[in-house]
């Protein structure tokens, strides 16, 4: 039997909470107040995820039981994942809807719910129901204490974005302690509705629990069913030691062989169908409590043959399913026992017997009444057929058991899908087939036996499994460490391990804990570091390298190669531990089926996986093993074609191209891992070079030599390659068209035409789609690298005469690397993530998302088509392919896409990611160059930024649509966009403003100069405005002339405002950089007088504070500027003189003195000097100058006399105002002449002489005398 084809694939997603703040803890034991994480964006405490050994990790993070419950289509959220954790004491709930039909965000669930119980949850002790009276979810849980807990989560709690403050668990948890159940042991548990439950007992009994719609979960009424009817309710079989002898061990309890394994209520509501461990199928009457029908699971007459019953394992899974076949054409929903019309129509039982793995389909006719009560009849629809799945051959084992199954009838058809999950040891696989439930009419062939033997397909496991990860590009585990490697093993491993959504943080922390214990390292953090404060990346690197020494060679040089090899060995050890934990996460625990969407779900210990249909490329790649029949290639080709695409118009050609892909893949995998990695990196680098139009000829042959393929490909590899393409005529027959058709398979992936159904993604939906996006990109990368390896080998390893004349190696190389560039772009976006915060109502939710999702989530559309009939497995694939292939990245669009991504990262201040992404950009357009300039600004590389800004100036200054249409990432604010397309002056003003925010004033000045160069200069603005005013006074002038005057006035005012703004920014930058002469020139051109005065004050203040007095005095102040400068300096001097102290090197009164004397204003210079003199003479804290040895006062007198003498004999005078704090209040202005100053100077000298020689009185004297003791 050939291997089963792969037509479906699991999309495994870890069920992590939407954010760190979105976990609601519910204590069903009635303990302490509930808690939720408090700070938005905070991570879990280190003690919750670190320091876990394998046992603690499995108990805390890996579910032992779980499934997905599906509510009705009208309820939202409708798909809820439930898992049993922490030694069966925690029940975790999380919504896993992919899309909803409402508006964006409406009905979404953001919270995860963790319900904690005091006692363990019983196996199969969790069930759910959807109440009809209220929009809520009810969860029923049986614990080992035999309590029935009812947890009610209403819609407002299910759709909250944050944990409600002051939440009380008692508001949603009700507990019922049944005295009847306390005497018996529950075994299995199912929910009929929110008001009716069925519980099977260990003694073979059946209990029906009921309540009314207005009663709570603490009020249940019990009805016990037994084979003898109501009379049997008084017999406790397990208490009677003589009732049975044979038992089945189940954990710590013994089960009666009649214990019910599976049960379901009939659609008419009159019967309960059950299957016991003894393989008896029973129909129980709800009315009488009796068994009205009892038959063998396979319909055998066991009582007549007096055979002992076959007792199945107590751990047996699903055995029974009730079916209603949809036979109407009006679209009525007739699925899985729910029907809108009469309940008296026939229905079907799908049964599975573990004894020989056989399925049976029974038709149940409408119930009838008899003298003994209601009756029921069944009919085997296929009595002569043995419906046995060939799992022995499918899994290549003879020891296996069926864990679960589901039959899904198709609408308006007799056809049905059967999904089974089979396990053999640790290996668990899902298979599916299609068959007719009811045999065909007379005259039609029934191929049921053939279909059940050969029409099975297998569901491929996720790309996140350990086996798939080892085969993925970039896996560093098998790489050889070389001395010339540019990237260290630690860098490669960290990139691989920390890839988004690849390994959980908890598994990494636990593997690190186990690794540190194994190496005898301390688990406590380093001194001075709190637990969890050190990044995981740093802790991993420290643990791996901590005990590795750098040895030396014989020549005393460091042996770096050996050092890195030892590090690589330690990383491999760590990965083996992590891989083991990762495998535990993939342990299968459940299979669920969404009947309304037709979507199967797989549930693992730490993953939940919707099962999607494979795309055509995936079917081609995953089913190449069907071509392995070497003896009958035609049969292999036919089987392969029928599997991949039955509608292919060229099946033979498609199969031949698949042979080519298989051969190319085997050729690449025959190369050492190091060579494969070298080829991949070199091809990716070449792809970016080609995008920058720097490509040269002979690239394929150059790649062959660069990777040394001539030394790596052996004769055996060449022979295998030749045999693989023999069906195509050999290597010499391969043409460009052959390779292009293979490459077109990748291009056709997104070729789907449909309409937008309007469905919106939920918070969980992007996680599912992102797994599909990564799988699509990885698959395309694999195909491209396979084709590239073959092309490169043919270019460099074969002679030209051995190749077909229609084969151009460089053209095929370019075609391949062009697609590889696109794939590498997507993989880079998928492999990098950032923290995103969104606002939902009043709550802020932070979560880690990949860049692909963050950048392109707005491009996703819920495409639909009547051809798919809304089948969710097909739609998931369509949505994924259409999303990734809808992003146009051809040569014409490459610049726009990459620039958008770069601008997006810059807008979010993700500088490191933007730098890493920079090689993907080409910088051909002005907008791309401008965006790069903005990145250089963030990197503080202002010189490169300035050059880039200038390079982009022409198009940005002239192009009207640059800011409006090309800024798709909202890099520019609305105010900034106004500067684009408005001329060079406006553009360079915008550039100057960017530098000004960062205080890069030298670049502000450069940009302002450029802006000033592109503005019109008005030589005499005041004169021009005066002339216009005179023209406006002529009121009898013609209207056109008046309009012209008004327009000219408006134009001049706009020019003046623009120039003043530029000049003001230029002036400020020049002052900040100490270029005072240039600052004065800019100041002189400013027309706005208030602005001019303010800038002048800033200029003088800067010169004084920076001790740039010589530069100040060299400035050519004239006219009004000189007068204003004098006023400013005078105010500064008076302020400093009044303060008595100064923090500057040169006192401001001296600066003003020099400024005035430089302009021959000797009287003004003398006035400020006289005020200084008066303060020296009369201010108390200046008494130090009375020291005869201090010449300060004398020097001031001399300088003042000489200055005033410069005014001439007739003008040698000054007016001295009263100085507050020095002179008495009310003193009038006085006239001080040169003679007065000379007289005072002589008196000062005499006084100093008397003091020096001791000629003065001890008491008395004038007011200036000083008492000396």
From TrEMBL:
Q: What are the residue boundaries of the Nucleoporin Nup120 helical domain, all occurrences included?
A: 699-814
GO cellular component terms, alphabetically, are: nuclear pore
Q: Which SUPFAM superfamilies match?
A: Quinoprotein alcohol dehydrogenase-like
| Entry-linked Pfam families | Beta-prop_Nup120_160 (PF11715), HEAT_Nup120 (PF23300), NUP120_helical (PF21486)
Where does the record place it? Nucleus
- The Nucleoporin nup120-like HEAT repeat domain is annotated at 901-1104
For this UniProt record, give its keywords in alphabetical order, as a comma-separated list: Nucleus, Transport
Q: Which InterPro entries match?
A: Beta-prop_Nup120_160, HEAT_Nup120, Nucleoporin_Nup160, Nup120_helical, Quinoprotein_ADH-like_sf
Protein name, UniProt field: Nuclear pore complex protein Nup160
Q: Which source organism does the UniProt entry give?
A: Salinomyces thailandicus
């Amino acid at each position: 039997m050939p291997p089963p084809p792969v037509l479906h694939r699991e999309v495994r997603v870890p069920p992590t909470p939407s954010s760190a703040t979105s976990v609601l803890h519910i204590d069903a034991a009635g303990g302490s107040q509930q808690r939720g994480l408090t700070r938005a964006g905070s991570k879990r405490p280190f003690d919750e995820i670190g320091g876990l050994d394998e046992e603690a990790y499995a108990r805390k993070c890996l579910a032992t039981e779980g499934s997905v419950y599906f509510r009705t289509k009208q309820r939202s959220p409708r798909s809820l994942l439930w898992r049993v954790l922490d030694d069966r004491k925690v029940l975790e709930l999380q919504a896993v809807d992919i899309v909803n039909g409402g508006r964006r965000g409406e009905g979404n669930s953001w919270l995860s719910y963790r319900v904690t119980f005091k006692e363990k949850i019983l196996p199969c002790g969790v069930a759910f129901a959807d109440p009809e009276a209220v929009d809520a979810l009810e969860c029923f849980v049986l614990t080992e204490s035999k309590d029935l807990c009812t947890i009610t989560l209403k819609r407002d709690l299910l759709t909250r974005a944050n944990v409600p403050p002051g939440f009380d668990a008692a508001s949603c948890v009700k507990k019922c302690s049944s005295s009847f159940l306390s005497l018996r042991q529950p075994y299995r548990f199912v929910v009929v509705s929110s008001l009716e439950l069925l519980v099977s007992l260990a003694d073979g009994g059946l209990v029906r629990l009921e309540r009314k719609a207005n009663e709570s979960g603490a009020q249940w009424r019990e009805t016990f069913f037994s084979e003898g009817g109501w009379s049997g309710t008084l017999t406790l079989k397990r208490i009677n030691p003589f009732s049975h002898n044979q038992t089945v061990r189940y954990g710590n309890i013994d089960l009666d062989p009649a214990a019910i394994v599976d049960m379901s209520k009939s659609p008419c509501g009159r019967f309960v169908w059950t299957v016991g461990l003894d393989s008896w199928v029973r129909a129980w009457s709800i009315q009488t409590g009796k068994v009205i029908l009892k038959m063998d699971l396979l319909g055998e007459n066991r009582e007549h043959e007096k055979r002992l019953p076959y007792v199945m394992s107590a751990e047996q899974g699903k055995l029974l399913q009730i079916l209603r076949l949809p036979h109407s054409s009006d679209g009525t929903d007739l699925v899985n026992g729910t029907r809108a019309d009469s309940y008296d129509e026939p229905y079907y039982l799908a049964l599975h017997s573990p004894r020989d793995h056989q399925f049976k389909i029974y038709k149940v006719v409408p119930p009838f009444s008899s003298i003994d009560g209601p009756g029921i009849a069944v009919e085997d629809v296929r009595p002569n057929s043995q419906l046995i799945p060939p799992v022995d051959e499918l899994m290549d084992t003879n020891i296996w058991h069926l864990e679960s199954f589901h039959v899904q009838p198709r609408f308006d058809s007799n056809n049905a899908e059967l999904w089974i999950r089979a396990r053999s040891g640790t290996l668990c696989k899902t298979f599916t087939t299609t068959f007719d439930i009811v045999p065909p009419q007379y005259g039609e062939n029934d191929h049921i036996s053939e279909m059940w033997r050969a029409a099975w397909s297998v569901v491929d496991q996720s790309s996140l499994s350990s086996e798939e990860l080892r085969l993925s590009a970039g896996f560093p585990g098998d790489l050889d460490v070389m001395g010339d490697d540019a990237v260290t093993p630690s860098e490669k491993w960290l990139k691989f391990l920390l890839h988004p959504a690849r390994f959980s943080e908890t598994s990494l922390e636990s593997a690190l804990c186990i690794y540190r214990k194994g190496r005898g390292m301390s688990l406590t953090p380093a001194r001075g570091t709190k637990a969890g404060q050190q990044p995981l990346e740093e802790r991993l690197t420290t643990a791996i390298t901590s005990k590795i020494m750098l040895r030396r060679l014989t020549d005393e040089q460091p042996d770096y190669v050996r050092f890195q090899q030892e590090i690589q060995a330690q990383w491999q050890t760590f990965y083996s531990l992590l891989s083991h934990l990762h495998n535990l996460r993939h342990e299968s625990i459940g299979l669920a089926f969404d009947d309304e969407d037709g979507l199967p779900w797989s549930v693992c210990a730490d993953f939940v996986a919707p099962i999607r249909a494979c795309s055509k490329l995936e079917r081609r790649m995953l089913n190449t093993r069907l071509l392995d029949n070497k003896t009958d290639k035609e049969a292999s080709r036919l089987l392969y074609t029928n599997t991949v695409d039955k509608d292919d118009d060229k099946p033979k050609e498609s199969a031949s191209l698949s042979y080519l892909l298989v051969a190319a893949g085997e050729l690449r995998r025959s190369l050492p891992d190091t060579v494969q990695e070298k080829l991949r990196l070199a091809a990716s680098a070449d792809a970016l070079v080609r995008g920058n139009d720097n490509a040269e000829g002979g690239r394929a042959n150059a790649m062959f030599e660069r990777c040394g393929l001539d030394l790596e490909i052996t004769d055996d590899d060449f022979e295998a390659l030749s045999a693989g393409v023999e069906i195509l005529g050999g290597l010499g027959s391969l043409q460009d068209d052959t390779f292009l058709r293979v490459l077109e398979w990748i291009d056709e992936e997104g070729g789907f035409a449909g309409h937008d159904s309007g469905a919106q993604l939920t918070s969980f939906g992007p996680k599912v789609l992102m797994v599909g996006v990564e799988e699509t990109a990885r698959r395309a990368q694999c195909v491209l690298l396979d084709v590239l390896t073959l092309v490169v080998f043919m270019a460099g390893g074969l002679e030209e005469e051995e190749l077909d004349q229609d084969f151009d190696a460089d053209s095929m190389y370019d075609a391949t690397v062009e697609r590889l560039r696109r794939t590498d772009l997507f993989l880079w976006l998928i492999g990098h993530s950032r923290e995103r915060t969104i606002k939902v109502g009043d709550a802020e939710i932070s979560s880690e998302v990949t860049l692909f999702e963050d950048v392109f989530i707005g491009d996703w559309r819920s495409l639909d088509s009547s051809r798919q009939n809304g089948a969710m497995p097909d739609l998931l694939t369509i949505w994924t392919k259409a999303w990734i292939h809808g992003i146009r990245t051809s040569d014409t669009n490459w610049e726009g896409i990459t620039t958008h991504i770069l601008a997006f990262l810059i807008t979010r201040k993700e500088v490191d990611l933007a730098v890493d992404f920079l090689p993907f950009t080409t910088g051909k357009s002005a907008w791309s160059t401008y965006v790069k300039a903005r990145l250089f600004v963030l990197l503080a590389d202002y010189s490169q930024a300035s050059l880039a800004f200038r390079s982009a100036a022409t198009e940005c200054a002239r192009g009207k649509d640059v800011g409006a249409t090309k800024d798709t990432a909202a890099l520019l604010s609305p105010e900034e966009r106004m500067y684009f397309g408005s001329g060079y002056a406006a553009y360079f003003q915008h550039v100057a403003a960017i530098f000004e925010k960062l205080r890069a004033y030298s670049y502000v000045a450069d940009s302002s100069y450029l802006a000033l160069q592109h503005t019109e200069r008005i030589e005499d603005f005041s004169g021009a405005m005066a002339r216009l005013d005179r023209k406006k006074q002529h009121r009898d002038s013609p209207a056109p002339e008046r309009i012209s005057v008004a327009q000219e006035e408006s134009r001049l005012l706009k020019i003046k405002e623009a120039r003043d703004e530029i000049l003001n920014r230029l002036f400020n930058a020049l002052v900040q950089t100490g270029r005072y002469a240039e600052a004065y020139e800019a100041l002189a051109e400013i027309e706005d007088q208030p602005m001019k005065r303010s800038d002048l004050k800033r200029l003088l203040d800067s010169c004084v504070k920076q001790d740039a007095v010589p530069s100040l005095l060299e400035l050519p102040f004239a006219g009004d500027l000189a007068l204003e400068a004098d006023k400013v300096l005078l105010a500064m001097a008076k302020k400093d003189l009044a303060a008595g102290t100064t923090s500057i090197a040169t006192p401001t009164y001296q600066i003003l003195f020099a400024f005035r004397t430089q302009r021959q204003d000797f009287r003004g210079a003398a006035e400020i000097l006289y005020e200084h003199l008066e303060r020296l003479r009369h201010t108390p804290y200046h008494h130090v100058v009375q020291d005869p040895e201090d010449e300060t006062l004398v020097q001031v007198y001399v300088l003042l006399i000489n200055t005033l003498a410069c005014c001439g004999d007739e003008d040698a005078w000054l007016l001295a105002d009263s100085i507050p704090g020095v002179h008495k209040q009310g003193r009038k202005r006085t006239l001080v002449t040169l003679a007065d100053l000379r007289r005072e100077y002589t008196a000062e000298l005499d006084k100093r002489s008397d003091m020096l020689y001791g000629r003065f009185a001890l008491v008395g004297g004038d007011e200036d005398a000083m008492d000396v003791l």
